[in-house]
Amino acid sequence: MKKIWLSSLGRDQEAVQGIMASLKTYGLEVSGHFWVDDLEKMAWIGPRKELLDPAVALWTILASASDLEDGSVRYGLSMLALAVQAVRGIHFPVVILQVPGGEIAAETLPTPLAGAEVLAITPTLPAARLVAMAHRPAETVFPPYRLDVYAIPRIGQWLEVGPREDEWQGAMLGVSGGAIALHAVGAAGRLPERSVLNYPQQGLKIELGATTFTAWAVQNEMDRSTSYFVKVEGAPDALLFGPYAAGADAEMFVIRLK
Question: Is the per-residue pLDDT at 247 higher than 70?
């Protein structure tokens, strides 16, 4: 049976139960949670395991326009989306169910939610549309880089980046807002216990339009089995990362998190 995961940003239990009951009449199993906005405890990582279940075909987010104006909420949703997309691809379907009161503009959503479809509940649930999306064949598409996130109590919030196919002659990652505390290089897929860094750099300033990024970098060679790990503190507005290039142009990637 196809499953849907529902994240409710509000606390209207009656509305959530109504949505779940409506979708179950269409043969869809619905589970979910009420969103916890606690960046200090990295509560956003909570439903990652459930969203990685191959049976979950659709992530729905019940929200009002005002819910999605909160930078903390936008950041948490973005980080959870990155954690899911690292495994299920950037086209994993996300639907924002907009409750009455203001309009959610899809073009203003953070990068990890840029592909989300916004469906208004006015006043009935667009159940047929959700059913069609849940039964759409899965499309697993990945960008040319690897990007994953870790949220571990007492260890902190880490980002992992690296090449998917090509090799990088080093790596760089910068944040706009927030701060970088540590960095390391190691085998892909797990935080390294030890690390040897080649020509590490800290505090690099990169201007991109009106945005200033503070970046750290290393010159370790990387392939699909090797990653650059960066511990990030706070809640950055945006990330910039890619292969390290000294005195030469290199393709960099930008992710807006708010």
Answer: no
Q: Answer whether the bond into residue 123 is a cis peptide, omega within 30°.
A: yes
pTM of the model: 0.95
pLDDT at 248 over 70: no
Q: What integer pLDDT is reported at residue 15 of this predicted model? A: 87
96 beta partners: 61, 118
Quote the CA–CA distance of 188 and 27 in Å, as a whole number. 39
Q: What share of the chain is helix, strand, coil (3-state, %, to 5)?
A: 20, 40, 40
The angle, 0 to 180 degrees and rounded to 10, between the axes of the packed helices 127-134 and 13-24 is: 60
Place of tokens 């980080």: 79
**CA torsion angle 29 77 184 141 (round to 10):** 60
Q: CA 69 to CA 75: how far, in whole Å?
A: 11
Q: In what order do the strands lie in the sheet with 56-63?
A: 29-34, 3-8, 56-63, 94-98, 117-120
DSSP assignment of 56-82 equals EEEEEEEE-TTGGG-HHHHHHHHHHHH
What is the chain's mean pLDDT, rounded?
Answer: 94
Which pairing describes strands 168-176 and 211-222: parallel, antiparallel, or unpaired? antiparallel
**DSSP-assigned beta bridge partners for residue 222:** 168
Coil, strand, or helix at residue 183? Answer: strand
C-beta separation of 232 from 159 below 8 A? yes
Long-range pairs for 243-247: beta carbons < 8 A, 24 or more residues apart: 243/163, 243/168, 243/169, 243/170, 243/171, 243/172, 244/168, 244/169, 244/170, 244/171, 244/172, 244/217, 244/218, 244/219, 245/169, 245/170, 246/219
